TrEMBL record:
Name this polypeptide is given: GFO/IDH/MocA-like oxidoreductase domain-containing protein
Matches recorded under InterPro entries: GFO_IDH_MocA-like_dom
Region annotated Disordered, chain positions: 293-321
Homology family: Belongs to the Gfo/Idh/MocA family.
Source organism (scientific name): Cercospora beticola
Amino acid sequence: MLLQLPVPIGIMCQRRFEPRYRTLQNLLPALGRIVSFRAVLARNIPQLGSSWRSSGVGVTEDMGFHMIDILVRLFGAPDTLQASRIEAIREEQDYSGDDIADITFKWRNQRLVGNIHLSRVAGDEESIFVTGTDGTAVVDEKKTTLFDNDGNPCQSIDDTSTKQCVIRDMVLGFGDYVKGHTSLYASSLESHRQTVATMEAIQRAFESGNNEPVLSSSVSAAPVPTQIEEMPIKTPTTPLSRMHINTHFHLPSSVPEESSAVPPPSPAFFQDHPLSMFHQHIVNLAAAAAGNKEPASLRSNNKSLVRQSRPQQLSGNKRRLSRIARRNSIQCVPRTGMAWA
């Protein structure tokens, strides 16, 4: 019904805009054929009986939806799934809904299996382990690490973006979508078809206790294009076992207010380039690190930090990382306040 309305509709799923998950999506080709994943989202919410959660909303519908959405976005809707839950663990509080859920996903044709564990009565943890035939990628809170088949770390990427930056990115993208500046939005209503079909199958599995199919009639026939696909990011072409790289690299997501080394772009810039503001921020930071008084120039085609910043302007470790990035055709994530090398 909503898809038939002649207005653009967006869903607030901010994890789709977080640099760590955009980075993970772009690392997947380096892992070869994906064979398994394991995800955990756990938070400790003390007062479940004195908030809107007391009305029966469980961890799967609340926090879990966002992580399940990321998994479906990375791997597509599963063919079948099995789900179990435990409800109302805190007996001294008056509430209902599942506090713990464990869900297993299966894809027949891809020979892929995955699991997610959800809890709102445990210590804080947010992680995804993805294993492929050529290596493993691990997102552990705000850090993403790439391992080869021998367990050796090849890459380490810190996501230092703030929640405010992520929300601003999401809102600006939706503004362009509403104004017709772009026909794609990373969290459009249409792009959530597979997630909704998966959530419906999970609810059926909770009630039946059986394996449940994800109904194909609820899933769009073709993947919905996203902004990430609109701005592709190259992945390493060298096999992980031959890269012999162990780097740890991050850029801060914000500049202290008292710093005068990096003047902020003018309001006119944001009006003319709403999709490039975070990328410009990264370039400005690189210019400041290189000792430039003026911010680096912006190219409207969203080239990477490595390609925009001249190697001779970077010193020490940054020059070495720049060479590594060029040699392996690695680019930083556009518009996110994070780079990797």
